[in-house]
Design a protein that fits this description.
Number of domains: 3
Largest sheet: 6 strands, antiparallel
Number of strands: 22
Distance between the termini: 17 Å
Strand content: 25-35%
CATH superfamily of the largest domain: DNA ligase/mRNA capping enzyme
CATH class of the largest domain: Alpha Beta
Oligomer: single chain
CATH topology of the largest domain: D-amino Acid Aminotransferase, Chain A, domain 1
Strand order of the largest sheet: 16-15-14-17-18-19
Helix content: 10-25%
Number of helices: 13
CATH architecture of the largest domain: 2-Layer Sandwich
Length: 415
């Protein structure tokens, strides 16, 4: 679920059970329905209206007693397929835990005590984020590095992540206020002290999953553009007009921005794949040309995926890497923001020979159920003909969008 205040994805939060459904062939298990998610639970554990803690797929819980049952799965929460008595398959996505799971493990933690007080006062606690309180992280190590919060101490720790991960003394210091200050005295730099290393006019690229948007289904008469979701690393290029003559160019990964793109910092790959794509497609010149031709603009942004060999598990059979744009955004001097739909974006960027994500449909009507939307996400990639990661849907005005990730992709990828 996307935290609208921070723009980042939350991995653990309080939910209210919408319904309980039987699982064909199973006498001991049933499905708890939370929004568009269906999670296998032991029969009788929950009933509709109960509060619970939901952990999204892709998450990893800490190695603590309450999560010991996940030890064989390396404490990771994944999409799982189950078959009961040969009577069809059930796909369970995520993990549900009752508040009793903590109360029975040696007492009530502070976060749960606070939730109980609020609930007993009549407050609806559904939607309370618990990712930080429960120390939940992404199951993929690289994602945790990219998605670190951005205060100056965490930026410092991110730059020296090997040291902070493996040195117990450094960790001990970092967990103390005076220790952080001491570490920053020796390891910090001016770049860390910046209020933000992310351009404040650029929105990050996390899309909400369709399972968290049950209000959209059944679909109304709104028509949507559908594009293929590419399994790569989010890449942002943006240029802002500083005055009549000067502009500033930035190249960004999902959460790290290079205000000096020529700096060949390796980040999390063997080379800086983001600056490599900027150079390959001459992005700085492209953005400058757009600003020069549109004098009413204050900034222009291109966002997309860098994908291929060594970027993700899904390498599309490539020996090299490449880039595909999925967003073209104009920011005007009067404060207006224009996000082009996929067809408009493709038309404009084709002039500069910048590739864009494949358009699968320009007049798509949402199905009646989320389950149908997820099935639609399955299919073959336009890149190599193998299974695709999923689809992204966007309205014709470019404003609203969400993603549907293929269960086939999740099961094959093991996430």
């Amino acid at each position: 679920m996307i935290n609208k205040e921070t723009g980042t994805r939350e991995l653990a939060y309080v939910v209210k059970i919408n319904a309980i459904e039987p699982i064909e062939g199973s006498d001991n298990c049933e499905a708890a329905v939370v929004g568009g998610w269906k999670i296998m639970t032991r029969k009788g554990t929950f009933k509709p209206g109960d509060y619970a803690v939901y952990f999204e797929i892709d998450s990893k819980v800490p190695e603590k007693p309450e999560f010991e049952f996940l030890a064989k799965k390396h404490y990771k929460v994944k999409t799982q397929k189950y078959t009961f008595g040969g009577k069809g398959n059930f796909i369970s996505q995520g993990l549900l835990m009752s508040f009793n799971d903590w109360e029975n493990k040696g007492g009530i933690p502070a976060w749960l005590a606070e939730l109980n007080i609020r609930a007993n006062s009549g407050v609806d606690i559904a939607g309370t984020f618990l990712t930080e309180a429960l120390e939940v992280k992404y199951s993929v190590v690289e994602d945790n590095k990219r998605k670190s919060n951005v205060d100056k101490y965490k930026r410092m720790a991110q730059r020296y992540w090997k040291l902070f991960k493996h040195n117990k003394f450094i960790q001990w210091l970092y967990n103390r206020t005076w220790g952080k200050k001491l570490l920053f005295f020796f390891l910090g730099n001016k770049q860390d002290k910046k209020a933000s290393f992310w351009p404040d006019w650029v929105q990050k690229t996390d899309e909400e999953r369709c399972q968290n948007l049950p209000q959209l289904f059944p679909g109304d008469e709104t028509r949507w553009y559908v594009t293929e979701k590419i399994d790569g690393s989010s890449t942002t290029f943006t240029m802002k007009r500083l005055n009549k003559k000067k502009t500033k160019f930035y190249v960004c990964s999902r959460n790290v921005c290079f205000d000096k793109p020529e700096k060949e910092e390796k980040l999390f790959y063997d080379s800086n794949i983001y600056t490599e794509m900027a150079a390959r497609y001459n992005i700085e010149s492209v953005l400058k040309d757009i600003l020069e031709k549109n004098t009413d603009l204050i900034f222009v942004t291109i966002q997309g995926e860098t994908y291929g060999a060594g970027v993700q598990k899904r390498d599309y059979g490539m020996k090299d890497i490449d880039f595909m744009a999925f967003n073209l955004i104009f920011g005007y001097k009067d404060g207006k923001i224009q996000r082009f739909n996929p067809s408009e974006m493709t038309s404009k960027l084709s002039y500069y020979n910048i590739p864009c994500v494949p358009i699968l449909d320009e007049n798509f009507k949402l199905p009646n159920t989320i389950d149908e939307m997820v099935v639609y996400a399955d299919g073959d990639s336009k890149i190599d003909g193998e299974y695709r990661e999923g689809v992204v849907l966007r309205t014709s005005d470019g404003v609203n969008s969400f993603k549907a990730v293929s269960n086939e992709y999740l099961l094959k990828k093991g996430e």
